Amino acid sequence: MAEVAIVMGSQSDWPTMQKAALILKELGVEFHAQVVSAHRTPNLLTEFAESAADKGFKVIIGGAGGAAHLPGMIAAHTHLPVLGVPVRSSQLSGLDSLLSIVQMPKGVAVGTLAIGEAGAANAGLLAAQIIGTTNPDVAQKIIEFRTKQTETVLANSTLELP
Ligand code: RP5
Question: Under CATH, which number does the domain 4-155 receive?
């Protein structure tokens, strides 16, 4: 059963949000990915967020661009942790998305990641780390991921002129 939901405002967000999905897959965490728009499908957003805990989700990742209300509105309808990914926008390069998501007034929390693919990948990683607090198999995979990453950097640390 999927423990992490990845929702996004549009199909156009999927190339970015796939980076979260790929990390979750690598770490052995089942996910469900779906388009849910705060603006275009507001009733679906309410229904999705209110039923997410009962469906067994433990963490929700929300990605959106522009006036990106999606993560905050999902967080308003559920007690589950919500991670927000600001998707890069065509007009303001994602600064609009970032500010829309990160500046939550106190009382309803959204954990905001970086703009774009790095943020999406780290949202997947952070979601897995949350799942890993109660799932030793996932925690072990995260430790191995970090070890491999460190070894790769160390093995390629020498710099030379071209
Ligand atoms: C937002 O508007 C979406 O999250 C997307 O980042 C942006 C543009 O959506 P499309 O016009 O490409 O569907 O709601």
Answer: 3.40.50.1970
